[in-house]
Write a structure and sequence with these properties.
With about 260 residues, this protein is of the alpha+beta class. The protein is about 65% helix and about 15% strand. A hairpin with a 4-residue loop joins strand 1 and strand 2. Helix 1 crosses helix 2, helix 1 packs across helix 3 and helix 2 packs antiparallel against helix 3. The longest helix is centred in the N-terminal third of the chain and has 126 residues. It is rod-shaped. This is DUF3450 domain-containing protein.
Length: about 260
Amino acid sequence: MSKLSKKSLIASTIIGSLALTASTFASADALTELHKAEAKIFKASEKSQSKIDNIYEQTLELLAEYRNTVDEAEILSGYNDHVQLMVDDQNANLKSLEKQIAGIDKTKQGVVPLMYKMIDTLEKFVDLDVPMNIAARKERIQALRDVMGNSNVSVSEQFRLVLEAYEIEANYGTVFGVYQAELDLGGQTLTADFLHMGRISFVAQSLDMKNAWVWNNETRSWEVLDDEYLKPITDGIRMARKQLPLDLTKLPVFAAGAK
C-alpha cells in the first residue's frame, strides 16, 4: 500500500470517525428532543387527565344534584297532593259550615219567638203557683226579659238562661227549704220564717214562734194555723236549716178541693 493510500485510509477513518461522532451527536440531540417532546406530551396528558377528572367530578356532582332535585320534586309533588287534599277538605267543610250557618239563621227565626212564649208561660205559671221565694222568681223572669233585649248576649246563651229558669222552677217541687222575708197579711206586714216542702206544704211562722200560717193556693191567701202546728213547724224550720237531723214532722197540707 502506498503512502497516499495509507493517508487516504487514515483520512477516511478520521472522516468516518467524525461522521460517526457527528451521527452520534445528531442521535443524542434527536433523543433529547424526543424526551422533551415526551415530557411535554406527558405534561399535556396530565393536564388533560386533570381536566377530565374535574369534569368527571363535576358531572358526578351535577348528577347527584339532579337526583336530589328529582327526589325533592317527587317529595314536593307528594306534599302538594297532600296539601291539595287538605284544601279540598277545608273547602268542603266551609260549604258545610255555610249551610249550617244558613240553618242557624232559620233556627234563630223560630227560636226567638219561642223563647218569648216560654218566658210568658213561665211568668203565668209563677203567678199561679205557690208563692215560695216569689220575689226571687219574679226577679229572675224580669232578668230574662232584660237579656232578650241585650244585643251583646247570643241567642244560644239566651236560650240557655230560659231553660235554666225552667229547671229552677221544676226543682222547687222537690226542695225542702226555709228563708226569711216579709209576710203580708192584708194590711199587716211582719217578718216571718217561710218553710216549704216542695209544693205540697208552704207555711210561715212569726219570729217569736207564737203564730203560724199556711198558704191556701185556691184562695191565694194565708190562713191561721192552730197552736198544734207551732212546734212541728219550728222543728221543720230547724231541720231545713240543718240545726236538727231530718225526721218525721207534721205539716199542714191543702189537698185539691179541700175547704
